[in-house]
Amino acid sequence: MRFFVSGIIAVIFLNILWIPPVHAQSYGLGFYSHEVVQDKRTTLNLGISNVSAKDNLEVSFDLSFIPNQQIYFGYMLRLVGDDKQNIDLVYDNQYNTKHFKIIIGEKLSKISFNIDDKELFDNWSKLKIFIDFKNDRLTVSAGKASYSEAGIHLKQSANYKLLFGANAYRQYQTTDLPPFKLRDVKIAQQDKLLSWWPLNEWQGDVVHEIVNQNNGTVTNPLWIKARHRNWQIEKEFSVKGDASLAFDPATETVYVIAADSLISYSVNKLTPLKSEAYKTGRQQLIPGDQALFHHDKLYYLFIDQKAIATYSIRDQHWDKTFKNMPQETNTGHLNKFFCTADSSVYTIGGYGQLIYKDSVQQYKVSTGTWQQVKTKGDVFTPRYMAGLGANAAGDTAYVIGGYGSASGQQIVNPRNLYDMMQFTVKTKTFKKLFNISIKSEDFVFANSLIINSKTKAYYGLIFPQHKFNSNLQLIKGSLDKPAYQLVGDTIPYLFHDARAYADVYYCPHSNKFLTVTLFKDKEQTRVKVYSLLSPPEPLDTPILSEAGINYILWIGGLLVVGLGITAAVVVYRRKNKARQQPPLPLPVTEVAVQHHPEQVEPLIELDHDNQVNNNKNAIFLFGDLQLFTPEGHEITKYFTPLLKELFLVILLYSVKLGRGVSSEKLNEILWFDKSEKSARNNRSVNIAKLKSLLDKMGHCHLSKDTGYWKIEIDYNQIMVDYHNYLNIVSNKNKLNKQKIIQLTHITQRGNFLSNIEYEWLDAFKSEVSNEIIDSYIQFAGSVQIADDAEFLIKLANDIFYFDPVNEDAMILKCKALSFLGKHSLAKNTFENFSKEYKVIYGEGFERDFHSILE
């Protein structure tokens, strides 16, 4: 009986094993085509050897075209057998009505066909090429249609090469190819699957084959799955003066409103960027004011003046022009939406003059009048930097998060908000739906939410507003409950309250998200447009290629079957003897993602507001740990927890002490619970993995030349903020304003390794905080308040960041504020300090306000 049950179990396992792996739909390989130079075009080289002499051979794959390209012409597949005969699939839309053609040898065959454009561009089409050697017939099927030709002298081969796109293989080389996407390439014979390349990698030039591990190669790949996870910068440009944004989802056009012209960026046009001067002359813009699009018109909101200027895109004409307006808005970072039910623009919240706003304003387009809306329902906390999205009709808006306070006053307990509020236009009612929870550091929202009423979901961009070098992160949440998840990777974002703005839009036809950032830099505004294909991949999805996972599951399945059968025998012979199977090790992989600021040795003075956001060749230890390759790819997230700690131990001992760390010290910190042999094996394996990751950096490698493990870094090529910090604080007698500014640029990212906690790291963290505070205080003591009061206030705030009850910083700030005549702010600084002091120490601060000013 036991043997019978065991046999059934084995059969079940075998059936499970041969169930084809399930794949997500967001995968495949895109081919760069005529839009790039020949050297940058995509080549996919697959092959199969030692094919048995059988009656037939079938090649199949899924195909789709990349839209919005100029030229669709060239070779898609060249199937070469024993270097003797080629069967080619080509596409030619130049003059013929049937664009897909088959070439055999040097002759066009009679097979030609079309695939409907909507199907070809919006979906995947299944193509099969069936080679019938026995009957000398070639059949091509596209969807439900089939096309055949016989008597073409097919030659049977033992070895086949599949050359997709461009290739440089012998006499078959070509650089002409259409821009297309490919996935699930399969070769079968007599209904038996010989090879299967899913093309579901995230990155790299290896194409995994999951039947016999017959891997192929690719050059210049455009991995589709990566485009659902990694934001890609589509356009970067600057405009003079201030700028504002609006978006038309119907034409998928981003409008950048500048003072003298309208710049438009269209996703689905061959020439996407266009600039048109206003026929009505210059339009004064106010930093912080906003705009929105509706029915071929742009509405620019002069919110403080209760005025709107309407721009006709067709006529290139403003209905009003304004001059001599204020240089800043009193209602920055407000939210707005258009309600078609009453043809009105609504604005909610905002910030200005140290006050957070909770008001709702309505502009009626028909009458050109403004009015303040009296709202009902739940309390809407005054705020700014919230996210807002409305349903298609615009009669229901959702507002989430932001930063504000219950009283509206900035001085009274401001904080991050995480509530989701629903505003109904008809009843003018706010309703609180729920609070979302934070998973790490505090964040606010970019201006818009993407609302999907059908699925009751929203997408929004979040970012930590307390950082200048911040990052935007897309999230997907529910309108019914507080659950949300991070999707896609991050986008670098320079945030400075009055000078920065970010928004997210959805392109319904191209099925992609757009993020647009603005940053005002002196007399110009820098504009960056990023795109991400939908649906976006969750950030916590493993970056291991799906082919790799399938391979592991495949082998794992075989092991499970083997163990199942073995277990059955063991159960039969020895009853219930226990068994264990060790887990399979997963390879470490890396993916190219984001860009961040570059700082290069030797240190130079940087303008905080103009710091270039171009992280390449950089290692950041202040704030979040981040490593960037020379290409600007971040590799940090592909460090396992153990690799991260190993890296930090070696790096800190290398940079701080210069000599590195011994193997014994590594064992003591990381493998104290293991035997000497086990620790040595673990160390060897992880050192090898770390070397592989550091090789991506260039000018940075792991060595043991001196007997100590040490990370050798060329600081002229790689910026390491910890090394720069040490250069500044090592000689406090030579501190000057330039070096202090450099130090604040380093620390503005956050505390030293702020999100990492190791017991051995505490000494490093404590030393860094003390050294920074001592440097700030020592420099402050060398400066007269009358000479630079504003800078000393900023310096005191920087000290509070590390020590909120630092007495020297409080006195410095109070004296500087009093010198500038800001006596109430000085008194508030003292009172806040005293409250914090009592909370921490359990007793009141001994001195009074007047004594510290003496």
UniProtKB/TrEMBL annotation:
Transmembrane stretches, start-end: 551-572
What span is annotated as the signal peptide, if there is one?
none
Question: Which UniProt keywords are given for this protein, alphabetically ordered?
Answer: Membrane, Transmembrane, Transmembrane helix
Q: Does the keyword Membrane apply?
A: yes
Which protein, by its recorded name, is this? Two-component SAPR family response regulator
